[in-house]
Design brief:
globular, alpha+beta, 4 strands, single chain
């Protein structure tokens, strides 16, 4: 069985994840400290507000209607499993695949950022409110942006690898 080990090829892993975690937690702290729940600061009229929201569920309010105990247990266990899987994949992949390492590091940092909120507050602080007219995208945060960016990068990497393998 191949051991998990981190090498110089993983040099981007820790700084990227730490940057996401710290920036996520600092911005969430500033929002919780500066705004009342549901308070809004218009940034770009008709497009972008800062609005303090607490999300007890997952993306798009998934499980927000479930019992608090089940929701908390389920989301915490899933997040811990994802974190463990990412660390395992990063440790097993010692090739120089910078895009893979950056994308997984973004997802890892975002997962940890939101997990901290779930453990400490029982819900996640969201504050980025994008909208056009009365149509609002669900509010999100820095951790969510990192997870989304990392996921898109992973998809791009898989498509690229698939094309290269067919050639």
């Amino acid at each position: 069985m191949k051991r998990i080990r981190f090498t110089k090829e993983h040099a981007v892993f820790l700084p990227v994840s730490l940057f996401v975690i710290v920036s996520d937690q600092v911005t969430k702290f500033l929002i919780r400290d500066s705004l009342g729940l549901y308070e809004t600061i218009p940034v770009i009229e008709g497009l972008f507000n800062i609005t303090y929201i607490r999300n007890p569920g997952a993306a798009f309010g998934f499980l927000s209607g479930a019992s608090p105990f089940f929701r908390s247990l389920f989301l915490t266990l899933i997040t811990v499993a994802v974190i463990a899987l990412i660390i395992y994949i990063l440790g097993k992949n010692d090739r120089q695949e910078r895009l893979l390492h950056v994308s997984l590091s973004l997802v890892l940092g975002g997962a940890i950022g939101n997990l901290i909120d779930r453990i400490v507050f029982g819900e996640v602080t969201d504050f980025i409110d994008l909208y056009i007219g009365s149509a609002h995208w669900p509010a999100f945060n820095i951790a969510d942006m990192a997870i989304s960016a990392g996921a898109f990068m992973l998809i791009f990497e898989m498509i690229k690898k698939g094309r290269n393998q067919r050639r």
